[in-house]
C-alpha cells in the first residue's frame, strides 16, 4: 500500500519532513469523513467495519462436518485510524481532549460516516482507545478508536407485556 502524502506547504509553520510533506504509511487513500458524537474528525480517516454471524454448529454422528443454525448476528465492530495534525502541541492536545471527552461519555454516541451508514449503524459505544507514542512530532498524534454498534432496544412495561402475551394466546 502506498503511503498517503499530505502537503503542508500552506501552513505557517510546516513540519520539516521530506520537503514539507509527511507520509502516513498506515492509511490508504480511501479516507472518509466522520463525526463521532459531538466531535467532527478534522482530517478524513480510515474506517474498518466488521461483523460476525452467530451460528450454532451441531455435529451429526456418521457425517463429516456440522449442521449450522443461524441464530442472529453479533454487534458490528468499528475501528477508526485517526491522524490529528496541528501547528503545535497545544493545538493537537486540544483535539485529543475532544476525543477523550467522547470516550468518557457513559452512553452510546451517534456516528455519521458513509461507511457505517452502509451497514445501518447510527449509534456506537466507545469501547477502546489506543494512543501510541509519536516521537519527534509535536503537532502530530495518531489514535486508533474501537467502537461496537448499539441498537436502540425498546423495552416493554408490564402492561404492554401482558397485552402482548394475551394476543399470543
Label the overall shape. extended
Percent helix, as a range, is 10-25%
**Gap between N and C termini:** 60 Å
Radius of gyration: 22 Å
Compute the average pLDDT: 80
Number of spatially distinct domains: 1
CATH level 3 topology: Elongation Factor Tu (Ef-tu), domain 3
- Give, in order, the helices and strands: EEEEEEEEHEHEEH
Q: Please give the order of strands in the largest beta sheet.
A: 4-3-9-10-11-8-5
Detail the poorly predicted runs.
1-29
Name of the CATH first level? Mainly Beta
Description:
- The protein is an alpha+beta fold.
- The chain has one domain (29-152): Elongation Factor Tu (Ef-tu), domain 3 (Beta Barrel).
- Helices cover 18% and strands 37% of the residues.
- It is built from 3 helices and 11 strands.
- The protein has a 7-stranded antiparallel β-sheet. The chain has a two-stranded antiparallel ribbon with strand order 1-2.
- β3 and β4 (39-40) form a beta hairpin.
- The longest helix has 15 residues, at 89-103.
- The relative contact order is 0.17.
- Residues 1-29 have low confidence and may be disordered.
Using brief descriptors, characterize the structure shown:
169 residues, alpha+beta, Elongation Factor Tu (Ef-tu), domain 3, two-stranded antiparallel sheet, 11 strands, 37% strand, disordered N terminus
Précis, in short:
This protein has a single domain (29-152), classed as Elongation Factor Tu (Ef-tu), domain 3, CATH 2.40.30. The protein is 18% helix and 37% strand.
Amino acid at each position: 500500500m502506498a503511503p498517503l502524502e499530505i502537503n503542508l506547504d500552506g501552513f505557517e509553520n510546516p513540519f520539516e519532513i521530506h520537503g514539507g510533506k509527511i507520509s502516513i504509511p498506515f492509511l490508504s487513500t480511501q479516507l472518509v469523513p466522520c463525526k463521532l458524537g459531538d466531535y467532527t474528525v478534522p482530517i478524513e480517516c480510515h474506517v474498518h467495519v466488521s461483523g460476525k454471524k452467530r451460528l450454532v454448529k451441531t455435529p451429526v454422528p456418521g457425517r463429516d462436518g456440522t449442521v449450522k443454525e443461524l441464530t442472529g448476528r453479533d454487534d458490528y465492530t468499528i475501528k477508526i485510524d485517526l491522524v490529528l495534525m496541528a501547528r503545535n502541541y497545544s493545538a493537537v492536545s486540544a483535539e485529543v481532549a475532544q476525543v477523550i471527552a467522547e470516550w468518557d461519555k457513559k452512553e452510546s454516541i451517534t456516528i455519521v460516516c458513509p461507511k457505517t451508514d452502509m451497514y445501518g449503524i447510527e449509534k456506537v459505544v466507545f469501547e477502546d482507545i489506543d494512543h501510541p507514542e509519536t516521537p519527534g512530532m509535536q503537532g502530530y498524534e495518531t489514535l486508533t478508536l474501537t467502537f461496537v454498534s448499539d441498537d436502540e432496544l425498546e423495552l416493554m412495561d408490564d402492561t404492554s407485556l401482558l397485552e402482548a402475551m394475551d394476543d399470543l394466546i
